[in-house]
């Protein structure tokens, strides 16, 4: 099965019926866009969430993670450490549309910002054995992330990843794409917020992009702003920068 194959997803869609308040996170354009757009569907085993810095990807993915029962700071559903109290309340208001009779066997929520705390929790719980055998604190950021994907992620899992490329080289991103394909083959589902043109190329994935006004639209790979801009930049970096600096 490829990442694009039709299959009943664990989470088929997410919905927010009304905006329950003002201020963060309810005042964000993306939250209003979610209400206005109705159900946001995840029709394929891999859904990629794109959008500029500050467009609301992390807020949305964290809300979905909380609604799915994960610790807001990351980890598996059995992690319950807390180092800060700034999580958004969005998760409590989201409705997840699940497939009856299909429950993930395992799962992981990765927040790029708090992976250090997840690593500390892995050490505290004494479960490094399930993560490749070495404490994540004794591995590089990218090595420990690939340990996680290769050893702790398993078949039939639900994985919510927020900018996994923060840890990874281009080769690391390609290794992650291969691992994702394997896990999809064995019944896993992924929701990934990313700026990486490499990860955005995941075969068969649905790409949802948050526009400046907050609308969340399904787009083709070539239309994603991160892809188009990277392509324009790489075509002639010198000229691109000259143009940018003269503006
Ligand atoms: N705890 C918070 N309190 C108030 N505002 C917040 C909080 N967290 C995020 N925001 C604001 O909400 C908006 C969306 O932030 P979010 O982190 O979801 O964006 P993002 O799309 O993940 O960005 P990036 O690509 O930089 O990771 C931003 O304008 C941000 O400043
Ligand atoms: Mg973010």
Description:
- This protein has 247 residues and is an alpha/beta fold.
- The chain has a single domain, classed as 3-Layer(aba) Sandwich (Rossmann fold).
- 32% of the residues lie in helices and 17% in strands.
- Strand 8 and strand 9 (216-219) form a beta hairpin.
- Helix 6 (225-235) crosses helix 7.
- The radius of gyration is 18 Å and the shape is globular.
- The structure holds adenosine-5'-triphosphate (ATP) and magnesium ion (MG).
- Adenosine-5'-triphosphate binds at residues 24, 28, 51, 53-59, 86.
Features:
single chain, 247 residues, alpha/beta, Rossmann fold, six-stranded mixed sheet, three-stranded antiparallel sheet, 7 helices, globular, binds adenosine-5'-triphosphate, binds magnesium ion
Per-chain topology:
Blueprint: E1 11-15, H1 29-37, E2 40-41, E3 46-51, H2 57-67, E4 95-98, E5 106-111, H3 115-125, H4 141-152, E6 157-162, H5 170-185, E7 189-193, E8 206-210, E9 216-219, H6 225-235, H7 237-246
Parallel strand pairs: 3-7, 3-8, 5-6, 6-7
Antiparallel strand pairs: 1-2, 1-4, 8-9
Helix pairs in contact: 4-5, 6-7
The structure holds adenosine-5'-triphosphate and magnesium ion (MG).
Magnesium ion binds at residues 57-58, 162-163.
């Amino acid at each position: 099965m490829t990442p694009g194959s039709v299959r009943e997803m664990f989470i088929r869609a997410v919905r927010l019926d009304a905006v329950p308040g003002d201020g963060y996170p309810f005042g964000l354009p993306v939250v209003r866009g979610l209400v206005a757009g109705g159900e946001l569907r995840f029709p394929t085993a891999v859904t990629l969430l794109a959008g500029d810095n500050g467009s609301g990807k992390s807020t949305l993915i964290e809300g979905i993670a909380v609604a799915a029962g994960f610790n807001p700071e990351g980890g598996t559903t059995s992690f319950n450490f807390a180092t800060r109290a700034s999580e958004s309340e969005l998760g409590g208001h989201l409705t997840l549309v699940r497939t009856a009779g299909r429950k993930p066997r395992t799962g992981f929520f990765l927040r790029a910002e708090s992976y250090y705390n997840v690593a500390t929790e892995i050490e505290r719980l004494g479960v490094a054995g399930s993560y490749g055998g070495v404490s994540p604190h004794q591995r590089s950021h990218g090595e420990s992330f690939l340990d996680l994907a290769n050893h702790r992620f398993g078949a039939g899992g639900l994985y919510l990843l927020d900018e996994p490329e923060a840890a990874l080289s281009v080769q690391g991103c390609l290794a992650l794409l291969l691992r994702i394909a394997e896990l999809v083959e064995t019944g896993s589902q992924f929701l990934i917020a990313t700026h990486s043109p490499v990860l955005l190329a995941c075969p068969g994935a649905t790409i949802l992009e948050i526009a400046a006004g907050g609308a969340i639209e399904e787009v083709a790979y070539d239309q994603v702003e991160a892809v188009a801009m990277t392509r324009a930049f790489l075509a002639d970096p010198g000229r691109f920068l000259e143009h940018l600096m003269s503006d």
